[in-house]
Amino acid sequence: MGLNAVRFYARHSSKSKKQTRSPIILPEYISVSNLANLLAVRYEALSKRMLRLGFGQSETQHNYSLDRDMATLISEEFNVPIVSESSLDKHDLFPQPYPDEKLLKPRPPIVTIMGHVDHGKTSLLDYLRNSSIVSQEHGGITQHIGAFSVPLKSGKRITFIDTPGHAAFLSMRERGALITDIVVLVVAATESVMPQTIEAINHARKAKVPIVVAMSKTDLPGADIDKVTNDLLAQNVELESIGGDVQAVPISNVTGEGISELEDAIIAQADMLNLKSPVLNFPCQGWIIEANMKKGCGNVATVLIREGQLKIGSILVAGTSLCKVKGMSSAQGVPQKVAGPGSAVEVMGWKTLPEAGDQVLQAKNIEIARKAVDVRETRIAMKSQADILVKRNESLEQIQDSSTTTETETKRLLNCIIKADVSGSAEAVSHMLENLGNDKVGVRILEAAVGPVTEFDVSRAEAANAVIYSFNLKNEKDVIFLAEQHKVMIADFNIIYKLVDDATERLISMLDIEYDKKILGEAEIRAIFPITVGKKTMNVAGCRISNGSIQRNNLIQTLRNDEVVYDGKLSSLKVVKKDIDEVTKGNDCGMAFEDYTDFSVGDIVQAYEKIPRPRYL
Ligand SMILES: Nc1nc2c(ncn2[C@@H]2O[C@H](COP(=O)(O)OP(=O)(O)OP(=O)(O)O)[C@@H](O)[C@H]2O)c(=O)[nH]1
User: Fold this and answer.
1) For burial by CB atoms within 10 Å, which of 195, 409, 431, 591 has the most?
2) Does residue 408 have a pLDDT over 80?
């Protein structure tokens, strides 16, 4: 039933009621029996009330899932106030809008390197990472934390994400985490544009992230910059050298030639983007780049900071993970006390492992963080409950659908569940059954699966009025017994054509029986006599038998101008005043018909027998 109708009934049925119960939170979907639990009423009481509200019988079943609007209306009927799920939001954490432009400070660009396999992404990242160590005071061994920053001579910095290009970029973009400001597209000048180059271009374009091209392997013979330029043009990437707006820098990851120019190009692009973030007096916000368990450190996660400053002791929430920052270190292994926008730091202190792509938000204190985690967990639980309910409803509907639509106006369907020894035979059986039938009857396969018939198959078959075809299987006695109890047919076969014959017979038996009429005798109505039976007067047809004979119990039809005007039975057959069983050709008799007196002189009365026509597909 429609929501408006329910609303109408609810409005008109509820007297002014005072809400007395403590409020409940309704998920997006809830089953009828779960709603009964939540409302603390018996299922029977709830379904009764629902029927009164105008819900259909099927909508009051235990497993039927109600959407939040419906459940709210019903709950109101029981005086139970509802707290909307959105009220959970007030305990959650959300990214803060940027303050006044004047309070924003320039931040380093965040760069992802993408490109075709073997074109030099890793080599470029290695070169950049090594150069970052060399130029660091506390130089040491770099640790892989998923991102690192390269300080430049100019004092500026670039942060590179160094998880495998495509995967990281895509998974984060899918989660709505647009972390990257610029894509460096590595194209080997020896090979030029390749399929993954095009893919990377498309990803960057979709995400509206500008590209800087790094033409690698220019130290090798065969490097052809013009070809790369033209091939990129064919992909609508117009390089500056031919008047476009995309910067391209020839580099060698082996000699390091061109790499500082590439850094300059990235900075120039970043300047155009005018990347700025709030730093002071703003909660720290960022993204999880990687997370793992580290021996001696517990759960660690790399946080790429976009806004604010992260400090030891800060409280963070990412997804449903909570962290009181115990320690931080850079990709160069340098411990950090404070990290600002554009920095990637490995953070210790996570209670549980967050996921790459989770947004990181700072909470003012641990209570606020805990509440946020709580509401997020509640939301996830509600979502998964809703998903389960929706799935359950779908399968319920499917079963109901299959049982109710077994007989459609146009075609009757034999519902079948096929169980077979191997998938090949399950497929073969379903293929053959699917092809059976005609425009009036056919087979609907609810399931074709491998393995013996289960209790679930039996209950499903019962609900859907289906036959279970079991092919080449030994079924358990318990299941066979259960099927017998529930009058479910398990048709067992080892030979496929016998199975097909069985299904064919079942289909044939579903066809309507059509009959031919064999005329046994014929009479003409020659006069109409009124007779008195008790206090009633009724008309009787005076007939003469012109052909064959007419018996008292024969099926009778009356024809007028060759059209059947009556089809039924005699209520009496008399010769003179005597009841008689049969009158033969040439004799006169009086006939009265069951519920029919509208006959006329000249009508033809025929006695007939119904002969069923043979049925076949
Ligand atoms: N001569 C030369 N060799 C390079 C250059 N860049 C990369 N190589 C070599 O090319 C091969 C592939 O380089 P990688 O950096 O592993 O390429 P990749 O794009 O990271 O490859 P995947 O990770 O497999 O996608 C390696 O043998 C590198 O040494 C370059 O600029 N010049």
Assistant:
1) 591
2) no
Q: Residue range 585-607: average pLDDT?
A: 93
Using CA positions, which residue lies closest to atom 32 of ligand 1? Answer: 217
Cα–Cα distance for residue pair 179/159, rounded to 1 Å: 11
Provide the domain limits for residue 322.
279-370
Average pLDDT in the 367-396 region? 73
CA 116 to centroid of ligand 1, rounded, Å: 10
Ligand 1 atom index nearest CA of 123: 15
Instruction: Band the pLDDT of 249: cuts 50, 70, 90.
Output: very high
277 CB less than 6 Å from ligand 1? Answer: no
Residue ID of nearest Cα to ligand 1 atom 7: 120
Question: Which candidate, 381, 158, 171, 178, places its Cα nearest to that of 291?
Answer: 171
> In CATH, what number is assigned to the domain containing residue 230?
3.40.50.300
**Residue type present at position 421:** D
CA distance 196 to 204: 12
Residues 137 and 223 in one domain: yes
Across 30-39, 307-316, 394-403, the highest mean pLDDT is recorded for 307-316
Residue 432 located in a structural domain: yes
Tell me, in angstroms, the distance from the centre of ligand 1 to residue 257's CA: 15
Q: Which of 256, 265, 178 is nearest to 213 (CA)?
A: 265
Separation CA 89–CA 138 (nearest Å): 44
How many angstroms separate the alpha carbon of residue 122 from the centre of ligand 1? 7
Q: Which amino acid is located at 508 in the chain?
A: I
- Which residue, by CA, sits nearest to atom 8 of ligand 1? 120
Alpha carbon of residue 203 to chain centroid: 26
Q: Are residues 182 and 300 in the same domain?
A: no
Full-model pTM: 0.57
